Amino acid sequence: MSQYRNDIEEVAGLRQAHEGTWDAINPEYVARMRAQNRFKTGLDIAKYTAKIMRQDMAEYDADPAQYTQSLGCWHGFVGQQKMIAIKRHFGTTNKRYLYLSGWMVAALRSEFGPLPDQSMHEKTAVPALIEELYTFLRQADAREMNHLFRELDAAREAGDEAKANEILDKIENFETHIVPIIADIDAGFGNEEATYLLAKKMIEAGACCIQIENQVADEKQCGHQDGKVTVPHADFLAKVRAVRYAFLELGVNDGVIVARTDSLGAGLTKQIAVTDEPGDLGDKYNSFLDGDYIDSAEDINNGDVVVKSEGKLLKPKRLASGLYEFRKGTGFDRVVLDCITSLKNGADLLWIETEKPHVGQIAEMVNAIREEVPNAKLVYNNSPSFNWTLNFRQQVFDAWKEEGKDVSQYDRDNLMSAEYDDSELAAEADRWVQEFQRKASAEAGIFHHLITLPTYHTAALSTDNLAKGYFGDLGMLAYVDGVQRQEIRQGVPTVKHQDMAGSNIGDDHKAYFSGEAALKAGGKGNTMNQF
């Protein structure tokens, strides 16, 4: 028997046991409310979605074509509409996630106002957004099921048993809008205890996957900004363990940790690693420091620091800020060491922040990592900070040139120009962009593709277009043609915004509670009925 029918029978038994005092309670209404509220807590969500993510990781290991995707969402409504659209267009939410971007929390959710991605926003804004996203996704479940319940009642009223059974089957096999979220904890917002406390809040809000980066918490920069400062491995691994302890304490045994390295673009470190013997992890970290090897104490000036590295005395180059520089050209090797170390110490997935979307570059690093950890796989940022058009036009230009194809009609440095938009090269570059995720997952170990802040840009672009027309010559036609008519033509359910906000759910609840006396909002006078 299905859960829906089980709940009806259970509540019918409870009603009977109360000897008439619960006779006004309809067992099927209770079953409906339970079905609309499947996840009672954020921990229920975290445990459920962690299992999904683990299964997806195993399926990717067996077949790299089975990669996963997400878009960054800065508000619960944006996340809700994304998942509603995915179910509507593809029939399933399988292998589609949510991403919570620290960049968007800083830029859009801080009480300080818009901030750069430097961990200056309130740390509580992160779990608050996770909770908000899942609140809206649960409401998406409730709304869709409410429609099914109304259809079921209509079929029963019409005496159409076959239709009623068909709808019951949809109710019993309903696929939730609740999906895994990869949530950005930045560099942990403090020491390892602070990281643990914030991770707990994020997990309690519903996060099954936490992404943490190896930058210094109080010097944290966006991965696409300059001035990034990394920490020794021991410091980073302490925070990885803090996140794991948080998962285990809360019973989310399948929780996933994404270890992010910014070493490819980070040329600085705040501290010299502790090392006990040649070749240990601290010694390897220090071996990348830029500086001069010295022979005697006479080569040491006041305030200089000297490190014994690889059997020699190294005087690291120290900046006026007190930071130390890494040698130029060591980023690749530091990334590989970071990733291998993270995976061997409890991380599940990797994030390598790169300066361009290039499958060959990513694959080179992943292949080096897989020499020691064969199942290493990435979460990769298909970043809006990349100029995708220019990058891929230049990649095609370089490939064609290497093949001996005539590219004299193209100016490589000016390929972003609109004059090339209809060219053969531009068309080929667009094909490369279209195939990037599939190819990178097959060749470069990318398990999860995300765009960190796409909905930041879509909100700005759509608002710009509407404002340009509405406040210009088009007036109201800018909204009618550009928004409302498109919602109608494309079947976007927000055109009935009252329903999307829960008015039908509320009306039906009122009927449960008040019967015929219920004052409903969705009657003939509701203008929503025009659609």
Describe the structure.
By secondary structure, the chain is α/β, with parallel strands linked by helices. The protein folds into 3 domains: 1-31, no CATH class; 37-288 and 326-462, Phosphoenolpyruvate-binding domains (TIM Barrel, Alpha-Beta Barrel); 472-514, no CATH class. It has 18 helices and 14 strands. The protein has helices spanning 3-17, 27-35, 42-62, 76-90, 102-108, 125-157, 161-172, 192-205, 233-249, 281-286, 331-343, 359-370, 388-403, 424-443, 454-470, 477-490, 497-500, 503-514; strands at 68-72, 96-100, 181-184, 209-213, 229-230, 256-261, 268-269, 291-294, 307-309, 312-316, 324-325, 349-352, 378-381, 446-451. It has an 8-stranded parallel beta sheet. The chain has a 3-stranded mixed beta sheet with strand order 5-7-11, with no helix packed on it. Strands 8-10-9 form a 3-stranded antiparallel beta sheet, with no helix packed on it. Helix 8 links the parallel strand 3 (181-184) and strand 4. Helix 1 packs across helix 2 (27-35) and helix 4 (76-90) packs across helix 6. The model has no long low-confidence stretch (mean pLDDT 93). It comes from Alkalilimnicola ehrlichii (strain ATCC BAA-1101 / DSM 17681 / MLHE-1). Mg(2+) binds at residue 184.
Key features of this structure:
531 residues, alpha/beta, TIM Barrel, 14 strands
Query: What is the percentage of strand-forming residues?
Result: 5-15%
Count of helices?
18
Instruction: Give the domain tally.
Output: 3
Oligomer: single chain
Q: Biggest sheet, open or closed, and with what strands and sense?
A: 8 strands, parallel
**Which regions contain 5 or more consecutive residues with pLDDT less than 50?**
none
Shape: globular
Separation of the first and last Cα atoms: 38 Å
The total of beta strands comes to 14
Strand order, main sheet: write it out.
Answer: 12-6-4-3-2-1-14-13
Binding site for Mg(2+): 184
Protein name: Isocitrate lyase
Active site: 222 (proton acceptor)
Cofactor: Mg(2+)
